[in-house]
């Protein structure tokens, strides 16, 4: 149905198992599929292996692939929870971390799971002699908070040398959680010399999910582009996006390419919310109320509180261009990014098929 990640040029070693944390997640689903298709034995860490509805799609992948999958119960907030799942693994892919902007208690719902979970996984890596590499799913959110931060970066473009200095527990706590988690990871990695940390920093992830019930925040954004919420227009809020299948490939490259090291910005396109909607117009514009025009920034600013946005966020992102340098991912991970329109069409089509968005009568 959807074009798979292309692992050409990646020397995938199938002689040892790998651990994937948060294996039922949006990004992890494609990662697990790619590993299984390559013949790897995957130790899948999930909250409840007995919840067959949550893991069935991964079981189905394993049955149709040369790889094998084994499930382990693990919890981000339980110290030592990943030790059993990690036994014998050469590579650890740590993807598990909450992604939501609607929280009541940022410390409990975002910071603690991100930071304590990262510490737990990496301390287990320290205690597991077989581990040679840890691939951490961080985020561009660990690099910036608002599109306006790009202007302060070298040459006006975010690079791997830039760190987020503007997020806090009170403002954009999700970004703050990613910053603290990645800082924690580097502190632990730098204190030892047996295994190597390689970090993936994606922008907003788009594209189809392998899970029939995707929960990623990006699906909420794309749903609003087609359900009439933004029919009168969409804000030109600057952001970057990357296809989830390209991101899965990047993780596998980071795990297996001998020279992969450091941070890697994974972002296929510098864009904005309105442009994401316009990418859907050729295929879906005649049947769905997809936004065609930009909402004026003053109007977005006035309406921000009723839409659950802060006016500070509007000031720093709407009408502000977002730019990042993805050159390192191209050079060192061999990334070739698929077209924005393909990613958006595949993602929206999935929402149509599920009935999440309905065509006009």
TrEMBL record:
Oxidoreductase among the record's keywords?
yes
Write the record's keywords in alphabetical order, separated by commas: Oxidoreductase
What name does the UniProt record give this protein?
NAD-dependent epimerase/dehydratase family protein
Could you tell me which SUPFAM superfamilies the record lists for this protein?
A: NAD(P)-binding Rossmann-fold domains
NAD-dependent epimerase/dehydratase domain location: 18-255
Against InterPro entries, the record matches this protein to: Epimerase_deHydtase (IPR001509), NAD(P)-bd_dom_sf (IPR036291), NAD(P)_dehydrat-like (IPR050425)
